[in-house]
């Protein structure tokens, strides 16, 4: 069964490795590096049909270095990820429908507006390079909005609202996964394509990175998609480790709130340092599918795996066959 995974941080790992090659030897090989949860071979083994690759620039970097760091990750996307023989760049949403049976679609996503600051020319350049999903913040504040870790807990700035409007014009997802609650509600008021690339239910795990029931229901009412994340800290609080069933309880809860056709998966592979037992990397996606098939119908499982995404992407609504 196909998988569409809407978040991984392989580009950051590739960048760190390349920058450190003088000290550590050869940089990571995207094809099969064991250090990469979502390397090319593991995507193939796991049945991943489309993988989102986040551009993440840490907020603590000096402002005058952030754009360079973002461009380095984009360059690695083009050279390393798209350098694999069956990886195809998804530059517009309809490209997914044109993937051949053995091809994997690669989507560029931006996690945090820190990369472009207040320079909308840089943002437009990212659109031209293929960015199709944009989260305004990581956990902290920037010129667009406050993240979930910012004590001020403010919403969108005028610049942030302008960015959402540009996303709308270009058919780009506006990702709410790291936004403050006030920022979340501002986005929901403005965005044509609201999206949570990797978030769980706060009712089951009281972590600020998760969404509460009111937010979840509002996302569904606005036609948004919420993709569950595999980080144990966002899944369960009672113990340090998490099992697949613990993750599935978040899907159960979202379905109970009306989300059967609005839930997908956003693993956060390569951005997480602990894993759900049995979901160590992208090659283990079939285990998740097997567990889902024990409690949901085949149609529902197909929805969670890939079809819900296809039905909620901007633009065309054609389904992926197979």
UniProtKB/TrEMBL annotation:
InterPro entries reported for this sequence: Metal_Hydrolase, Pept_M19
Gene3D superfamilies: Metal-dependent hydrolases
Family annotation (SUPFAM superfamilies): Metallo-dependent hydrolases (SSF51556)
Source organism (scientific name): Planococcus dechangensis
Name of the protein: Dipeptidase
Organism superkingdom: Bacteria
Pfam families: Peptidase_M19 (PF01244)
